[in-house]
Specification:
Layout: E1 2-19, E2 22-36, E3 39-45, H1 55-72, H2 78-88, H3 93-111, H4 115-118, E4 131-133, H5 138-150, E5 155-159, H6 165-175, E6 180-184, H7 191-203, E7 206-210, H8 218-227, E8 232-234, H9 243-247, E9 253-256, H10 258-261, H11 264-276, E10 280-283, H12 290-299, E11 305-306, E12 319-320, E13 323-325, E14 328-330, E15 340-341
Parallel strand pairs: 4-5, 5-6, 6-7, 7-8, 8-9, 9-10, 10-11
Antiparallel strand pairs: 1-2, 2-3, 12-15, 13-14
Helix pairs in contact: 1-2, 1-3, 2-3, 5-6, 7-8
Length: 343
């Protein structure tokens, strides 16, 4: 017999997390638990209003999603469960992702292996994660970047989308002259601004630019891809499997996130589609707890790039699991996703 439940949690962020779309001081999450005998699978949703989700929408659809899991009544039938979940709600990706993570955690626990091993992946193949430097005044950006370098992070992801973007990049470069830098504009630039910034960023040794223009401007993304000086990563423009071929001639990299695509099975399908279209892959995250981000860490061996520092931005985290040593993220050798409550 399978039984299920969920609860809301509020996790404070260490300071504030600011991007071009706004700022927040906490991560609102919903933790999902699926029990089968003595084993419990855990997942979590980190909804983002950018994709039409809130804590309210997640909790509204979770009873139906969990009822679908209970109707299958076989924690190892992950493809059948995935089809049922997509049949219950078409959207609501964070809610479906929370259930997907919990189901995969439970199934791997039943088999007694870490999730990555169940998926046939080698943890050593995972790329190092970047560390995110959010928008702030130049002095704070410089301090955050310097602290990350001191902690051994070899890659910084700098949030842009302000009238001080060049000043912010220069502030980071001042303390990180040899460090790999990636930038993320979160849809803030026009196509012409993006091309101009791309040339300037290339002169400052930036590796690539993420989502330079709004997702509702696909031709603008194509323009930046064709005329810019840097590779382009599609984030908001690439949410689900059907989006991969749509951005294949407009981007070089796709940023896959469980909270965007709706779960582990969809993310794996997107990886294969990206490879078929000649795209590189980044595994990313929201600002989210270990209860959800651990699953993305297990998927990281499939990717060329990783941006999996979301839980590090929290002042409190209700679950533990991964160990961060510089950019290397290691999950404990425990069955499932390897997370466990800290309380």
């Amino acid at each position: 017999m399978i039984s299920t439940d969920f609860e809301r949690r509020r996790l404070p962020i260490d300071g504030a997390f600011t991007i071009a779309r706004g700022s927040k001081t906490e991560s609102k999450t919903v933790v999902v638990r699926i029990e089968n005998g003595a084993r419990t699978g855990t997942g979590a949703a980190a909804p983002d209003s950018r994709y039409g989700e809130t804590i309210g929408t997640v909790t509204a659809v979770l009873p139906d999603l969990l009822a679908a899991v209970e109707s299958v009544d076989d924690p190892l039938s992950l493809d059948r469960i995935d089809r049922r979940l997509r049949g219950v709600v078409h959207g609501n990706p964070a809610a479906r992702a929370a259930v997907s993570i919990a189901c995969h955690d439970l199934a791997a626990r039943r088999l007694g292996v870490p999730l990555c091993r169940q998926l046939g992946l080698a943890p050593a193949d995972a790329p190092p994660t970047s560390y995110t430097v959010p928008i702030d005044d130049p002095e704070m950006v410089r301090e955050r970047a310097a602290a990350a370098i001191d902690d051994g992070y070899p890659i910084l992801k700098v949030k842009l989308g302000t009238d001080r973007d060049r000043e912010l990049v220069e502030a980071v470069r001042a303390v990180a002259p040899e460090t790999t830098i990636r930038v993320d504009a979160n849809e803030a630039w026009t196509p012409h601004e993006a091309v101009e910034m791309s040339a300037w960023l290339a002169d400052h040794g930036v590796e690539f630019v993420e989502q330079p223009v709004p997702a509702d401007d696909p031709e603008g993304l194509r323009y930046v891809h064709e005329h810019g000086a840097l590779p382009v990563a599609a984030d908001e423009s690439c949410r689900v499997l059907a989006d991969v071929p749509e951005v294949a001639d407009r981007a070089d990299i796709v940023n896959l996130k469980l909270m965007k695509c709706g779960g582990i099975r969809e993310a794996i399908r997107m990886v294969h589609a990206a490879r078929a279209h000649g795209l590189e892959v980044m595994i990313g995250c929201m600002v989210e707890s270990t209860a959800s981000i651990a699953a993305s860490i297990h998927l990281a061996p499939l990717a060329d790039y990783a941006d999996l520092d979301g839980s590090l931005l929290l002042a409190e985290n209700a679950y533990d699991g991964p160990t961060y040593e510089g950019g290397r993220v290691t999950m404990p050798d425990r069955p499932g996703t390897g997370v466990r409550p800290t309380e």
